[in-house]
Each structure stands twice: as structure tokens, then as C-alpha cells.
Amino acid sequence: MELFKIMGNSLTPFLKHKGKTEAEQLQKNQAAMQLLKSWLEEEVTEEESKQRESYFESFKKIVDSARIPGHKLYSKE
């Protein structure tokens, strides 16, 4: 928020989705904050937890396979 204050309104036309004050931005973020809170409070079965972990491991392999050596995100290759 400090950078936005320093730069004044010069970015306003490009940042219409952003709040002009911290309170306005917090208000705009309420839906996302509620969704994240519901995810944190969600109870997950052991089986679903294992499925999610397996899915994430597959996801990491797919992401790293698309990156050049030395620039992997999840592996050390």
C-alpha cells in the first residue's frame, strides 16, 4: 500500500480493481477471505487427504517436466 501512496494516483486507471484505502481493499477482499477461511476449517477424510497428496505430487512432476534443467520448482534436477 505504501508504494501506491508514494506513486499517487498515477496508477489508478490501471488498477481499477484495487481499493483506494486499506479499508476499501479489505472490503473488496472479503469474499476471497471467507473462501480461504472455509478451506482452512474444512474437515477432510484420510482417504481424501491421500488423494490430494497424490494429485499434488503428480502436479509437481508435470510442472517440473515443462521447465528447463536448473529451473525446476519442486525437484533438485
Keywords:
mainly alpha; single chain; 77 residues; flat
Textual characterization of the structure:
- The protein is an all-alpha fold and 77 residues long.
- The protein has two domains: 1-42, no CATH class; 45-77.
- It is 58% helix and 0% strand.
- The two termini are 38 Å apart.
Briefly summarize what is shown.
This protein is mainly α. The chain has helices spanning 2-7, 22-28, 30-41, 46-65.
Please tally the β strands and state the result: 0
Please indicate the count of domains. Answer: 2
Q: Mean pLDDT score, rounded? A: 85
Number of helices: 4
Uncertain spans: none
* Structural class by secondary-structure content: mainly alpha
Radius of gyration over alpha carbons?
Answer: 20 Å
- Any idea what the shape is? flat
The biggest beta sheet is recorded as: none
Strand and helix order: HHHH
Strand content: under 5%
Measure the end-to-end span.
38 Å
- Helix content class: 55-70%
Secondary structure layout:
Layout: H1 2-7, H2 22-28, H3 30-41, H4 46-65
